[in-house]
Amino acid sequence: MRQADSRPSRRAFLGATGTVTAAGLSAGCQSSSARPDRSDRSDAPAPTPPVSPTGRYQAGITLPQPAQRNLLALVADLDDAGSARPLLAELGEAIGKLTAGTDARLMGLPPGNLTVTIGVGPRLVRKVDPALPGAKDLPRFSREQIAPRARGGDLLIQICADDALVIPVVAAALLEQAGDRIRERWRQSGIRGSNVPVDADKGLAAPRNLFGFVDGIVGPHTKDEQQRDLWLAGPAPVAGGTLAVLRRMELDLPRFAKLSVAEQEAVFGRRRASGVPLSGGTIASGPDLGAKTPDGRYLVPADAHARRAHATAVGVGLMLRRSYSIDGPAPGLLFMSFQNDIRTFTSTLTRMDNSDALLDYTTTTASASFLILPGFGEQRPLGSQLFR
Questions:
Q1: What is the pTM of this model?
Q2: pLDDT tens readout for residues 306-330
Q3: Contact (CB, 8 A) for 371 and 58
Q4: Hey, what's the torsion of the CAs at 200, 47, 381, 367, to 10 degrees?
């Protein structure tokens, strides 16, 4: 993986795909008399259901659930802010064809559960209206080692799919569609670990991160919670959108691995094996921040991540996390949060900055925020609500 401040070529990136395993190669060596009955497909895997790219909200945030296994986040700048409206409309049309599998640039690959999510950065939002959500740049925080090219950006293209091979092909198609109108800043690919059931009744699951802990348990999962904390209700140009924060972090795995399991659990405030809060309950239970041992110590330590980042303790709404683990140039995490008030993130990280034990094992190397555009459709091109 290249450094954040480099500009990888499209040719180089097309070579950086994941490993694809082919099954049943021996079938082609059978004689015609020994060929199996192709009419019996009972043992064939069910096709991956597609995810519609159109509607009130963009796909790739709450849908699908659980999130796809592979991701590419690509951040770029626009040479001419005035080109935003036609560019976004073209990207929306291309996304519709790519997710439907009708774009020849897929070269016959089935799109499966491909989603592409588009956001615009603060500079473009300010040109429309400085008072709109998403118009303010993120402040700077401690534990950052961010090159200039890896901070901020005008355009986010988030591509997710279970099939790793689809992602670089879709990225190449969208970059070709954009042409010389954009200049790439940085990109990061990632993968989600095995999912752990969080709430079987609601179909919720969350992956493990590189530290071995379940990541993204808490969030606005119900429709009521999402209306309250995730989706923007107004003003009209942004209604149906949300605000995204991307933070790429290197993780100090060797130093964290030297801790005992009990010490690791004290850093997170949850059990490593089960995800259950140290205060008890189930994995879906919120930590009881007032629970103490008989000698007066908090069961969830004062500097535990589960306490320092707790929405109630911070005094903010819930953030939806859709984070991915990364393996280069150093092992880490692409933290991604979605919320309808940027203070949900900034206030949380400010409180964590003071005394969150987890941050001692992280260094942020890229940072950006984006207004994720409202959903689109045939009668409403992507970006048309904002760029009239």
A1: 0.88
A2: 999 999 999 999 999 999 999 978 9
A3: no
A4: 60
